[in-house]
Specification:
Length: 159
């Protein structure tokens, strides 16, 4: 079961991390349930782009200035690095993964999801598949057009 939380703007102890990130710019969403649905749809889209090997589509999920902390690798802080790491992965591996939300929290213009990532990565040039078993913490930021993009992505292996 997915834990989904809408944090009221009037709550004094509203999620310290997200409050810090908002820096006073978070506004109350007009339709909180629509925001939860949008984050769920975003996660489904991210899963599909991974499984399709869509490099450009996957990179487009990230906002400018996003930070990606993949398991066992250096932190990615630039768009060029993000493209480089994605290109290396998508040209070497074909993935069949599932992104399963375990928690989604929406707080104004920010949201986070705690995800379980499971499946297989098969070398494109042939070979045995590798089991994928990771967890991710994703912080989303509402864009000017009302859509969502990844602001921070932190992954960690379960092995």
């Amino acid at each position: 079961m997915v834990r989904e939380v809408l944090v009221p703007r009037t709550r004094l102890a509203a999620l310290a991390l997200l409050s810090t990130l908002c820096l006073g710019s978070c506004g109350s969403p007009a339709d909180p349930q629509a925001d939860l649905q949008a984050i769920r749809a975003f996660i489904e889209r991210a899963e599909a782009l991974n499984n399709q090997g869509d490099l450009e589509g996957w990179v487009a999920l990230f906002e400018e200035g996003a930070i990606y902390m993949p398991p066992g690798r250096p932190t990615v802080t630039t768009r060029a690095e993000l493209l480089q790491i994605a290109r290396a992965g998508f040209t070497r591996w074909r993935t069949e993964i599932q992104l399963t939300p375990e928690e989604i929290v929406v707080e104004g213009d920010y949201a986070f999801a705690r995800l379980r990532v499971a499946g297989n990565a098969t070398p494109i040039e042939g070979g045995e598949p590798r089991r994928i078993d990771t967890k991710e913490m994703v912080i989303y930021h509402r864009q000017a057009d009302g859509g969502w993009k990844v602001a921070r992505l932190i992954g960690n292996s379960n092995r």
